[in-house]
Design goal:
Helix 5 packs antiparallel against helix 10. The strands form 2 sheets. Strands 2-3-5-6 form a 4-stranded antiparallel sheet, with no helix packed on it. It is of the alpha+beta class. The chain is about 70% helix and about 10% strand. Pfam families: OEP. Belongs to the outer membrane factor (OMF) (TC 1.B.17) family. Keywords: Coiled coil, Signal.
Length: about 425
Amino acid sequence: MNGRTGRRRMIALTGALAGTMLAGTAWAQTAPPFSQLLRQAEASPQVAVLEADVARAEGLAEQARARPNPTISVYGENFAGSSPYGGFGRTETTLQYNHPIELGGKRSARIAAGRAGVAAAEARGRDGRLAFAWELARAYGAAEVAERRIGIAEDEVEEATADLNVAKALVGAGKEARLRQLQAETELNTLRAELETAKANRTAALARLSALAGATTPYTGLSDSLLDRLATRPISGPLDPMQTLAVRAADAEREAAARRVDVQRRAAVPDLTAQVGVRRLEQDNATALVAGVSLPLHIFDRNRGNIAAAKAEARGAEARLAAARLEAQAEANAAVAMVAAADARAAAAERTMSTANETYRLARIAYEAGKSPLIELLAARHGLGVARGVVLDAAAARLDARASLARLSGVTITGEPVQ
């Protein structure tokens, strides 16, 4: 029986038993399908950071609507001095209310800047979620690739074991030298070592996926194949690089920076403080009103440094937007080309695999019949192993290409839009 087919049946049987007998544990240890895993990862630290950034911007926007607080002051005059002010008979006590009045549209500028800050944070959040979905897809694919490499290694160990048994039989019959058996044993030991390495790589890949998804219990396997879902070319519309989430986020950052420049310019306008109070005149046993207006003199501090810093920040945001547009255009062209190349590579790898399978089958028949040396059988099996790796590498490259194209399109690798 073919080794890969037998192993798949065993995996399916094991999964069914685990789902029936240990359903809770299995779900805790097995990564769900990618779309479900992405939804569950909403509680991961990476997503929590993005949500916190949006909440921070919303808090700042709320604070921007606040008006300056008034003050109340109480003070006394003309007491505890020299005669005739030695006592409290001539004391003048004033209770005063001071109300600051913002001029120059400061509050409206702050509110506009706060709204722009929220929009920028939300745009960054959407782009960050899309980047997280892209990274999670690559981690999921890497774990699946690592799992399949174990399958390839197990196939090669199984085939090398069968070849060793044939070599032993031929040596026992006197048709092969003892050296051929040692060569087959050496090959088998090498493949077993590669199998252990593949298992270690799978553990590392699953640990990486678990950490990225925010899972407290490390995954021990995958419940779905992301590589198989990408075997067919998805239907996608034209890609507009200028509408990618990265460009939108950079544009929102530029708008927010421009609003902050306006805030700093308006901050240079002096504010009035209106004053009204009640004064108690002890000597005359009378009460009188007091009123006034104060205006700061902007002689030394004209907010020039903050204005210059805000302008520099705005220039940087403009430059980042221009760079994001150029990068998006280049990435779009590259992504479309890479997807086409990956599909062609995968098709060519499948043809190579078919040829390598037939070559190994014929080499095995010839060796068992004593018509070819062991070296040819080992070379054919090595070629088959290489072909299997080529197929897997092509599938991994296709996943990376599709993930990059999906990211530029604003959707996950499985087609869900990012909110």
